[in-house]
Amino acid sequence: METQLENGYEILERITDGFFAVDQQWNFTYVNTEAARLLFRNRDDLIGKNVWDEFPEAIRLPFFEHYHKAVNEQVPVTFDAFFDPLQTWFGVRAYPSPNGLTVYFRDITEEKMKSTEKDQHYQSLFHENPDAVYSFDLLGNYLNINKATKELLGYSEEELLGQSYKIVISEEDMEKTVHHFNLAVSGLPQRYKIHTIHKDGSIILLDVTNLPIIVHGEVVGVYGIGKDITAQKQAEEELQTTSQQLQSFIENNADPIFIYNMDNEVVQVNKAFEETFGWLKQEIVGKGLYSLPLIPANKWNEVCELDAIVKQGKHVIDKETVRLRKDGTRLDVMLSISPIIDAKGNMNGWSTTVRDVTEWKKSQEMLQNTEKLSIAGQLAAGIAHEIRNPITAIKGFLQLMSSAHDEYKDYFNIISSEIERIEQILSELLILAKPQVSKFERKDIKVLLAQVITLLDTQAILNNVEIVAEYQPGVTYIECDENQLKQVFINFIKNSIEAMPNGGRLVVKISKVNSEQIKIQFIDGGVGMSKETLAKLGSPFYTTKENGTGLGFMISRKIIENHFGEICITSEQNNGTTIDIILPIRI
After folding, report:
1. Nearest CA-CA partner of 582 in 510, 520, 500
2. Band of the pLDDT at 476, cuts 50, 70, 90?
3. Facing residues of 579 across strands?
4. DSSP 3-state assignment of 331?
5. Pairing status of strand 77-83 against strand 88-97
6. Please, are residues 47 and 28 in contact by the beta-carbon 8 Å criterion?
7. What CA–CA distance (Å, rounded) separates 280 from 277?
8. Contacting residues for 307 by C-beta, under 8 A, at least 6 apart
9. Residues sharing a CB contact under 8 Å with residue 422, sequence separation 6 or more, in sequence order
10. Tell me: the pLDDT tens digits for 168-177?
11. What dihedral do alpha carbons 284, 290, 295, 300 form, nearest 10°?
12. What are the start-end ranges of the E strands in 270-346?
């Protein structure tokens, strides 16, 4: 028996916990080495001494209550308690017996400090969180709230604790809130948006997260986190409104607009772009800048330069250039290119606004030609006035001289021919200076053309040119000034004959465009004209003929315009020229 007791003491000496035993009078009967070390006492000084006499401070601490409970109720107890004299936390397990009490204890100060620090972190996270953080019991009554919750809702802690969350929920969101709270109570985290009511009656939009509070596997309550997104929602709505306005501006703009991203891909085009260039959105969006068929081949260097400028964050304003329609038609355009900057100041693309200036350029050219015509007319009036009188006198004296000097007859004939040429030029100049009064009558255009062809047929034969007339069946009567139109037809047919020095074929066609217009065509197989020559055609005193004045086409065009018609000339070098005259049937 004594040996067993000795073995038991030996085991108690080896355990890492402090251990002591007291009898029914609370006197120490055994203290192991670890207990003596933890209590900073000599165990020989404790054996036989009363625990409450040796440690009177413990009487007012949890030790006294728990030890007596174990002895009085004969139940084991486990607890943690702080012993002030030693500034130490002890984890205690006490086991009663009919003879007294045995106690195991250990120093848990470090564990307690870590646990306390962790609790403080959680408390700080709860109380100092900028968002509203709160907890509910299973019925939805507030158990705890942080400072942000009070500031958000305008209620004090006393006004909310113990109250249901329903007092701050708007009627429109009540059913939704109850639904999500019940799901959180069932153990499912929830996130949703609701309108809450401030104490002053104002409405706050909250982004709410509900998390179940789980202890030992059971839900015992619900945590709530509420983030005020009222201002954010308002900003989003304002941004959406601004975006819609911008989108409307882009979509309804009269000028074509297309937008690129930083990868040079088209991300948007408007309706005007579709109408102007002929491509649908789905055909162009997603395409790269350098793969688009709307840029002429000779403009790629220009495009690269503009691309580099805009990617530096700079603007391009009213850059005059050329772009292509889907059908290949060239358009004269003005480009305005702007970088697109986001809210953070970063560039995420650029927009291009295109203004079709084709008609404007034509108008400018017409205006310039009109000004030239005006100047030419004023000059012509002066020239005709100053030259015609002397020419008349010279012509009269030349006739007298020719009758008296037959030996110079050939010279006189040459001089007379040149004087007639001068008079012809003066007549053309006077047409520019003083527009002729038009006398419109109903005439058959076929008859007029036939008369002109008959007149010039001899000249055509001499130049080995065949004139072929092709008239579409139907009414060819129009209202016109017969003499003026004949002058135009004579001019164009003569020009066509002269454009075929080696002979050829001139086709004269008449066809109806529609019930209101008729078209006359002069198609030759002559030397043709370059694009540069075509562009200058009609400028005062510009001519391709060695002895021309450059006034014939100007006068012809003026006559056609006086008939409310239009002239279109197409030509290629060595491939002939086609002149189209469109005239209204009735003026």
Report:
1. 520
2. confident
3. 522, 569
4. strand
5. antiparallel
6. yes
7. 9
8. 264, 289
9. 387, 391
10. 999 999 999 9
11. 170
12. 316-324, 330-341
Determine the Cα–Cα distance for residues 274 and 268; give it in Å rounded to an integer.
11
Tokens encoding 351 = 């927009």
Q: Which amino acid is at 484?
A: Q
Tell me the chain's radius of gyration from C-alpha atoms. Answer: 55
Widest CA span of the chain, in angstroms? 184
Q: What is the DSSP secondary structure assignment for residue 101, as one 8-state letter?
A: E
Nearest-CA neighbor of 471 among 508, 517, 444, 497? 508
| Helix (H/G/I), strand (E/B), else coil: 551 | coil
Name the DSSP class of 58: G
Distance CA 587, CA 497 (A): 31
Report residue 342 CA to chain centroid gap.
Answer: 11
224 contacts 208 by C-beta, under 8 angstroms: yes
Identify residue 336 by its one-letter amino acid code: S
CB 66, CB 38: distance < 8 Å:
no
What is the C-alpha separation between 136 and 131, in angstroms, rounded? Answer: 16
Q: Output the pTM of the full model.
A: 0.37
Q: Which helix (H) or strand (E) holds 255?
A: none
Distance CA 468, CA 483 (A): 22
- Signed CA dihedral, 481, 487, 491, 497: sign only: positive
Q: Which residue has the tokens 């708007």?
A: 170
101 to 68, 232, 420: CA distances (angstroms): 10, 66, 152
Q: Taking residues 197-202, what's their average pLDDT?
A: 92
Structure tokens at 380: 């012509």
* Beta-strand pair 465-471/504-514: parallel
Residue 14, phi-psi category: left (phi > 0), alpha (psi -120 to 50), beta (remainder): alpha
Q: Mind giving me the DSSP string for 451-483?
A: HHHHHHHHHHHHTTEEEEEEE-SS--EEEE-HH
Q: How many CB atoms lie within 10 A of CB 64?
A: 16
Most confident of 7-21, 41-55, 232-246: 41-55
